[in-house]
Design goal:
Elements: E1 6-11, E2 22-37, H1 45-53, E3 58-68, H2 74-92, E4 99-106, H3 113-119, H4 132-138, E5 147-153, E6 156-163, E7 176-183, H5 187-200, E8 216-226, H6 230-250, E9 258-266, H7 269-281, H8 283-290, H9 296-304, E10 317-320, E11 323-327, E12 330-331, H10 336-345, E13 348-354, E14 360-367, H11 371-378
Parallel strand pairs: 3-4, 7-8, 9-13
Antiparallel strand pairs: 1-2, 2-3, 2-8, 5-6, 6-7, 9-14, 10-11, 10-13, 11-12
Helix pairs in contact: 1-2, 5-6, 7-9
Length: about 375
């Protein structure tokens, strides 16, 4: 279940001491392409270039280095990214403008161009169709495990990889995700499809509310499997992106629990999303989940601080899993020990809120907040 006509590699070139830090994804033929990028106004050089390059709707390679983000590096950073593209274009014998460059890692440090330029010659011979695990590993930074998903859609296949464990509240959109498919889909159809998929998946996850300077989701469709049913493909793409999103939050920095928040009976989807994000982003809710504390008041607090949103507390219903803890403006009679056991023993915690105002619903994902998150980020550069 691997898309035809794609090959990849992941290896260490010395940006990191031991771990893989250099990844390449290549299509045998020029592919239709689409991408969405971080909305951060402090974006990195690869994002600046990527926004320009994707306007053509074509790509043939994704090139990623990890360990240094090439953010806040000025004109030298842009020049370095272009030099990567030029050198890789010569190695792959393709137009450099068909290469989407990406970097992730520490901000404010120039790329080690000597190591990168030394690693590019000969890398085409290292490409292989079965190197996806190594490629997914090479784009990681503080991640503890690879994120990869595959789907079959008719005669075509879809494959996606991602990285991200912290600095994540995408809004395209640290998070990178790269997708390949051998389905025939034009850029005119692929770009809006990608935006819809991202809005239903990656834009509904949050680990620490920090929007990265490098967030990118990109896809190549090389057409080698022929036509596909677009509705079926988009459904499978959305399902796969949600699966990858949940892999990301489950591997959040220091995370012990995945949190799924469902807000229903909202006036509209935007209200539901605002309320759900407020809950999943709350440090008090996150720490309550980590501590297995049945403190529904923190969920109520998170709802109430969305000041501009209409809310009628007497209509609100709050549940942990299947256990209702608040409804009709007052606490429910519930088994507190049962809720605590649910929070303690369940790996994927579900917090459900019904607003009683309308018919719209949204689901978002996040994770708890532990001592290890502080340790990881306090020691990130040391």
């Amino acid at each position: 279940m691997t898309p035809k006509g794609f090959s990849c590699l992941g290896k260490n070139i010395g940006i990191k001491e031991k771990d893989k830090d250099f990844a390449l994804i290549f299509s045998e033929n020029e592919a239709e392409a689409a991408a969405v990028f971080t909305r951060s106004t402090f974006c990195g050089a690869p994002v600046t270039l990527g926004r320009e390059l994707i306007q053509s709707g074509k790509a043939q390679a994704f090139f990623i280095t990890s360990g240094i983000s090439n953010v806040a590096t000025g004109s030298e950073g842009l020049q370095n990214a272009r030099q990567e593209m030029e050198t890789m274009g010569q190695e792959l014998d393709i137009d450099p403008d068909l290469i989407l460059p990406n970097s992730t890692g520490i901000i404010g440090v120039q790329l080690p161009m000597d190591k990168i330029l030394r690693a590019i010659p000969g890398c085409k011979s290292e490409l292989g169709p079965d190197n996806w695990d190594a490629t997914a590993e090479a784009i990681m930074t503080t991640d503890t495990k690879i994120k990869l998903v595959r789907k079959q859609v008719g005669n075509s296949a879809l494959l996606g990889i991602a990285k991200g464990a912290g600095m994540i509240e995408p809004n395209m959109a640290t998070m990178l995700s790269f997708w390949v498919t051998d389905a025939t889909i034009s850029n005119a159809e692929l770009q809006p499809m990608l935006k819809r998929v991202v809005d239903r998946s990656f834009n509904r996850l949050s680990i620490d509310t920090d929007t990265s300077t490098s967030d990118t989701v990109a896809i190549m469709a090389n057409g080698q499997a022929g036509a596909v049913d677009f509705i079926e493909f988009e459904s499978a793409f959305t399902e796969a992106a949600i699966e990858l999103s949940k892999q990301i939050v489950a591997d959040g920095e220091g995370a012990a629990k995945l949190i799924e928040v469902v807000v229903s009976e909202a006036c509209d989807e935007e209200q539901a999303k605002t309320m759900a994000k407020s809950i999943v982003n709350s440090p008090l809710v996150k720490t309550a989940v980590y501590g297995a504390d049945a403190n529904w008041g923190r969920v109520a607090m998170a709802l109430g601080k969305t000041f501009d949103e209409r809310l009628q507390p007497e209509r609100v219903r709050i549940s942990f899993g299947e256990i209702c803890v608040f409804e009709k403006g007052a606490p429910s009679e519930f088994d507190e020990e049962g809720v605590e056991a649910y929070l303690r023993e369940t790996e994927e915690i579900r917090i459900a809120v019904s607003l009683g105002l309308g018919s719209s619903a949204v689901m978002v994902w996040g994770c708890d907040l532990t001592e290890n998150y502080i340790k990881i980020n306090a020691l990130y550069r040391t």
